[in-house]
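Quick check before the chapter quiz. The format below is the same one you will see on the exam, so make sure you can read both the input and the output lines.
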Amino acid sequence: MLCFNVDSKEAFQVSLADVSQSQMQGKTDVVLDFHVDDTTGNNEKDSLMDLSFHVPASNTQFVGDEHHTSA
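Here is the expected output.
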């Protein structure tokens, strides 16, 4: 599970078993792509395909260096 906290309270969780791939877009953005389930019935109209995060270079919790960014 990937847990997202806001002000020390859990905002939401993402099951890593549902993530098919993660990738960097630029130096400050991370994208999680999810498995696509095409076996759901017609009742399912929406599904989460990807989730993007912006990690500012000024982030103090995850400090980057010249070889690795904060993201």
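If your answer matched, good. The first strand starts at residue 2 and ends at 6.
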